[in-house]
Amino acid sequence: GMRMRMEGEEEMHSAVGLGCIWDTSTPAGTQVKWVRLNVGGTVFLTTRQTLCREQKSFLCRLCQGEELQSDRDETGAYLIDRDPTYFGPILNFLRHGKLVLDKDMAEEGVLEEAEFYNIGPLIRIIKNRLEEKDYTVTQVPPKHVYRVLQCQEEELTQMVSTMSDGWRFEQLVNIGSSYNYGNEDQTEFLCVVSKELYNSPNGLSSEPSHKAKVRPTHRSCL
């Protein structure tokens, strides 16, 4: 039985070989241009032209059938043991040159497949996207620093107008009269101000550059 099966396989291979020779010798219009791929159990239908967009890719070599002896399923589709989930974006990239992903699809998964099928331009696109994503993730939202200042009513306007750059007025709390100057009641206020501190990815805090002003520090000369 074993010998018969081997002979049968050899006949099949030679038939496939003949098919290829016949394909190339016929006018371009009648060439078999449709290719079926069975990726992890899901069948994709595409053309040789699409698969050969990327000359160096595994898929291009596969459908040219040069050095790759790939298994086929009962329908004649090339069997590829990879995850079909990520194959859609790969095939679409070969069709129109753009990377289109559903919002739930992980770019890392598509990158794995792009590397397996050796599709250079797509690998570069995904790596760039992932770098951009990393960059936006590491831009930590600003922290707010709050300060509470106590002042009297007549000092308020002066204090708010001389607040240094970056500080924002948040809230005013009236804490009632606490001093008597003669017959005059002085109302006391608590003034709440805040400032944003931007955290850079390395953990150092920096103030927003457009608001930061350099103020001279007075040092006593020794």
Automatic annotation (TrEMBL):
<dbReference type="GO" id="GO:0045724">
    <property type="term" value="P:positive regulation of cilium assembly"/>
</dbReference>
<dbReference type="InterPro" id="IPR003131">
    <property type="entry name" value="T1-type_BTB"/>
</dbReference>
<dbReference type="InterPro" id="IPR011333">
    <property type="entry name" value="SKP1/BTB/POZ_sf"/>
</dbReference>
<dbReference type="Pfam" id="PF02214">
    <property type="entry name" value="BTB_2"/>
</dbReference>
<dbReference type="InterPro" id="IPR000210">
    <property type="entry name" value="BTB/POZ_dom"/>
</dbReference>
<dbReference type="GO" id="GO:0051260">
    <property type="term" value="P:protein homooligomerization"/>
</dbReference>
<dbReference type="GO" id="GO:0097602">
    <property type="term" value="F:cullin family protein binding"/>
</dbReference>
<protein>
    <submittedName>
        <fullName>KCD17 protein</fullName>
    </submittedName>
</protein>
<feature type="compositionally biased region" description="Basic residues">
    <location>
        <begin position="211"/>
        <end position="222"/>
    </location>
</feature>
<dbReference type="GO" id="GO:0005737">
    <property type="term" value="C:cytoplasm"/>
</dbReference>
<dbReference type="GO" id="GO:0043161">
    <property type="term" value="P:proteasome-mediated ubiquitin-dependent protein catabolic process"/>
</dbReference>
<dbReference type="GO" id="GO:0031463">
    <property type="term" value="C:Cul3-RING ubiquitin ligase complex"/>
</dbReference>
<feature type="region of interest" description="Disordered">
    <location>
        <begin position="201"/>
        <end position="222"/>
    </location>
</feature>
<feature type="domain" description="BTB">
    <location>
        <begin position="33"/>
        <end position="134"/>
    </location>
</feature>
